[in-house]
Sequence to fold (159 residues):
Amino acid sequence: MSVQRINQAEEDDWIASHFILQDDVRRRSAADIVRDFMPERILRQLAGKFVMVCRPPDSAATVIRPEKIRDRFVVVVSKYLIPVSNPPTHFPREYTALILMHELAHIQLEHSPPTTDGMENEAYELALEWYNETQATQMTMDDLTKLNEQHDGFWLNGL
Ligand SMILES: [Zn+2]
Fold:
């Protein structure tokens, strides 16, 4: 997709303020995925509203706390979800992208935990909408369910 690249200093600043992951490689990797898969206009709307941090690897990702921390929503991500090599070793980038976008969709939709099944579906649907827009694909909820099922064992088996 064509992402309108901002200048390097702005990009570094955006990454530093939104991605506080375990190391620089993961920080850039997560930022690249978000940039590659999210519509530019949505990223602009979400600028300054979220921060991604790492958590122990008992699940893929989640938005914690109904209240914001320093005016930001915190997206807590397993370090195993963020690829450190190309090609990625654990998951395809598309899977990581959809999980991260699902969490960003909760923020865009202003959902507060604990979320209901209805909110979860709404977040998946919005993530899919963004995915299909930027990737020019027609992925459906059924495709997404299958993709989730393929990778669920990774989290359930506790690494
Ligand atoms: Zn969710």
Strands lie at 19-20, 50-55, 61-69, 72-78.
